[in-house]
Design goal:
Two copies of one chain form a homodimer.
Chain A: E1 5-6, H1 16-22, H2 32-49, E2 55-59, H3 62-73, E3 79-84, H4 87-98, E4 102-107, H5 116-125, E5 129-135, E6 137-138, E7 143-144, H6 147-155, E8 160-164, E9 183-187, E10 198-203, H7 205-212, H8 223-230, H9 241-257, H10 259-279, E11 293-297, H11 304-315, E12 317-318, E13 320-321, E14 330-334, H12 341-357, H13 366-383
Parallel strand pairs in A: 1-12, 3-4, 3-5, 5-8, 8-9
Antiparallel strand pairs in A: 2-10, 6-7, 9-10, 11-14, 13-14
Chain lengths: 384, 384
């Protein structure tokens, strides 16, 4: 028997009580019962987003929320600035280009955080920028970007700040309103502890002004339609409402734990994982790691598939490799949502054994011990 | 106790074994296991669509498949012909207009079938039509359109034939390739016996030529991206893959029953329901009823909400009213997917009691008996 542990940066593991909600008989999506569910999740999403803005629910992958955020805010021929520091940031550019939006790409080295000063300089050079597209947690590199600082820069301009928070929301601190995020996108299958299929978008009054100023090339992803339906706690089309029902249970879990405690748990998992990885002499890929995943460089002489396949075959652990130009160069361990500190320790233990079996000079136990020391230190700090 | 019976034309009831699949722990969507599932459902969808074309899987409501079908095939400024005979046919026009496509609307009375001769005449008048947008089962009126005959007309032109089969596929005969359907859209929450959240699109070689001829304003719904991923039994973005897993079970049920038997079951339910409604002196709304639902006019002196609320409160049966200009004028009973003849009889029995209690001059038992006679006749015919 190999017990499956889905240590991937989305889809991530789903709590058992959330899964069971999905097995309930389907109800009608316009019934009073279905509306009550949306009333509750609408409030819960606002709390998780830390926003007073409405959070709209889309039946789509996270990329659908990104498309909605782009096509509704920037008219064809308008200027979008993309803070490009990874595979998913680059997706902003691809979406914009498909819809005839002009893209100014401000490029950063993959694995490095976006530098707010360079954003300020680029915005001075391009004062006609309609929207700045950034990322909270770049899943392809495992980097957390300084969204609060970037938000301050953008807030001082006419541009709006649009953030892909798909692998970050619920895993790391993000305060939509306080940080000046005008449009925030999230997906269901990451730290929100659901299977994939739902996406979420919040929109600030500043962003609504941009949206209301033109007729966008959007129908299914029209945020105007979504807004008018959300006022009645409804959606424009038949939503994936068994997932919405399950979302209610997932949001109740976050409320019970406390969002700030959820963030702290992810911080502990993240720091413990980083310490373990480094204790094995491995190199972290990112200079500013995100809280929901840890990426490390594949050690010389090994292939990422050797490591990942052995982790799966021998220990039931699923991880992912690199994407695009990072293919073959990194391994990414997800620790978001329904994941705890002992899942991280188990993964490190399995990684130690795997690397040793693959002939790497590692001392089994070192990563686990390093992670334990981080956790014990943090727990002692919390008690003090 | 009121046992819930979801007699709506989508979302429809979901078999228990399909629901239980949804409660299984989430796996990674790029794993070998997930790919095996897509291989099987890809074949199953082709069978249900009666097509050799690839059927692509989108994470969206059915409307998302309609948007994909429209924006990928007709360039901005190109001409689309919409066969407009109901609320959902009109959605084709709304989608096209949002993307700058010119719409020629060929209008038919709601509740009446599309007349293929008028389509032929309109295509002669508009030989530059890129695509004709039609409907297999118009959910808003309960009408089945003569798709086979329309397909013959369109096949003789340069235009492609795009069909919304969302509430028809799996409920009524539809032979994509034999009938000249170039693009067929379906949704998960109707006769395919799943919760909402997935949509499906098949594309013929004639349609691919139109699609490959220009760069469409689509990213999330790019059929070119979907095609290239489908070749590897994959999807461009993280799909709602717990629904795909459940789809496998639903498709196996259809295969076990036999698609033609599934169509016949829907025919029996449809004819039995129509006979019952008429036996009560009620008027069917459509002159050519679809097999997946039955719509009847609200009898004079009553409001549709009185009937529907009583059905729910007293008997646990959910039905729907009219949409758009039919609001308040009709009641629609769904009988698609995981629904059998006795569900229809139960609904008719409840309707008789409901109408009698509301003061209508109905004789309880008449609708049920009329339905039984239809069923007994059909079953005897099948045995002969």
């Amino acid at each position: 028997m190999r017990k499956p542990r889905l240590m991937t940066p989305g889809p991530a593991m789903v709590p058992e009580d959330v899964l069971l909600e999905l097995a309930r008989p389907v109800i009608h999506h316009r019934s009073a019962e279905a509306k009550d569910v949306i009333v509750e999740v609408a409030a819960g999403l606002k709390e998780v987003f830390r926003t007073e803005n409405d959070v709209m629910i889309l039946t789509a992958s996270g990329t659908g929320a990104m498309e909605a955020a782009a096509v509704n805010t920037v008219p064809p021929g308008g200027k979008a600035m993309v803070l490009n520091a990874g595979h998913f940031a680059a997706r902003w550019s691809s979406i914009c280009k498909a819809f005839g939006i002009n893209v100014v790409s401000v490029d950063f080295e993959w694995g490095q955080p976006v530098d707010p000063d360079r954003v300020a300089a680029a915005l001075k050079e391009h004062p006609d920028t309609v929207a700045v597209f950034g990322t909270l947690s770049e899943t392809s590199t495992g980097t957390g970007h300084p969204v609060e600082a970037i938000g301050k820069v953008v807030a001082g301009t006419d541009a709006i700040f649009v953030v892909d928070g798909i692998s970050g929301i619920g895993a790391m601190e993000c305060r939509t309103d306080d940080w000046g995020i005008d449009v925030l996108c999230a997906g269901s299958q990451k730290a929100l502890m659901l299977p994939p299929g739902l996406a979420f978008v919040s929109v600030s009054p500043k962003a609504w002004k941009k949206i209301d100023a033109f007729d966008s090339h959007s129908y299914y992803f029209s945020l105007k339609s979504a807004r008018s339906k959300m006022k009645e706690f409804d959606t424009p089309y038949t939503p994936a409402h068994t997932l919405i029902l399950a979302l209610r249970t997932a949001l109740r879990r976050i409320k019970d734990e406390g969002l700030e405690n959820v963030w702290k748990r992810h911080q502990r998992m993240s720091e413990a994982c980083q310490a373990g990885i480094q204790a094995l002499g491995l190199e972290l890929f990112s200079s500013r790691p995100a809280e929901g995943l840890t990426a490390f460089r594949v050690p010389n002489g090994l292939k990422d598939a050797q490591i990942r396949n052995k982790l799966t075959e021998q220990f039931g652990i699923t991880t992912v490799g690199g994407q695009a130009k990072l293919k073959g160069h990194i391994v990414r361990i997800g620790h978001m949502g329904y994941t705890d500190e002992l899942d991280v320790i188990s993964t490190l233990a399995a990684l130690e054994m795997t690397l040793a079996e693959l002939g790497l000079d590692v001392e089994p136990g070192r990563a686990v011990t390093a992670a334990q020391q981080v956790l014990m230190g943090q727990l002692a700090g919390a008690r003090a």
